[in-house]
Write a structure and sequence with these properties.
Blueprint (H helix, E strand, L loop, with lengths): L1 H19 L2 H4 L3 E8 L2 E7 L2 E9 L3 E2 L6 E2 L5 E15 L4 E15 L8 E7 L2 E6 L4 E16 H5 L6 E15 L1
Antiparallel strand pairs: 1-2, 1-11, 2-3, 3-6, 4-5, 4-11, 6-7, 7-8, 7-9, 8-10, 9-10, 10-11
Length: 179
């Protein structure tokens, strides 16, 4: 049993150390943008961490109630702030794939009045593919499905913490430049 535990610990440490050989660790700070959902994103990258701020897009699908309902007003005011912890593994010299965990906060509304505004706090699992164009630039595709607790003015007025759950898929094509 002790040998088995020792083998498992050694294999896990080798697997975790493979993350350190990623191109993310060699780079310092990166800036970039992406187009997708939200429509426009600004991205700041640190080793293993991506910070995104986006504007415009869809609101996702509500999971609360007796049936699933999608919003009919797809494109609307949508502000997103997300923080992702991404671990990447090199597949080839220039191609890497990564996944991790993250969280996001969003504010959305399809009308300009306060009673229709929603705020959400979510958990997301980003999946990304990166291709290095040069040593300092990369392009990629990032998809981040999330599940969110949604709150609105009506639920707060009735002293409820949240109005329901909602799923959302955020992502897009990105370009980053590293300093």
């Amino acid at each position: 049993m002790q040998k088995l535990m020792l083998i498992v610990i050694i294999i896990l440490s080798m697997w975790v150390n493979s993350f350190g050989k990623s191109s993310y660790l060699d780079r310092k700070i990166g800036f970039g943008g992406s187009i997708g959902n939200p429509i426009f994103n600004y991205i700041m990258s640190f080793p293993f961490i991506d910070l995104e701020i986006g504007y415009g897009g869809t609101n996702g699908i509500h999971l609360s109630g007796s049936k699933l309902k999608s919003k009919k007003y797809d494109f609307n005011v949508f502000v997103l702030s997300a923080l992702d912890l991404i671990f990447t593994i090199l597949l080839t010299d220039k191609l890497s794939i990564g996944t991790g965990i993250g969280g996001n906060i969003h504010i959305s509304s399809h009308k300009s009045d306060f009673k229709n505004m929603e705020t959400g706090l979510g958990f997301r699992i980003p999946i990304a593919i990166f291709y290095d164009l040069t040593t300092k630039t990369e392009i990629g595709l990032k998809i981040a499905p999330s599940i969110e607790l949604v709150s609105n003015a009506k639920s707060i007025a009735y002293h409820h913490i949240y109005a329901g759950l909602k799923t959302n898929i955020m992502g897009g094509i990105l370009f980053k430049y590293y300093i």
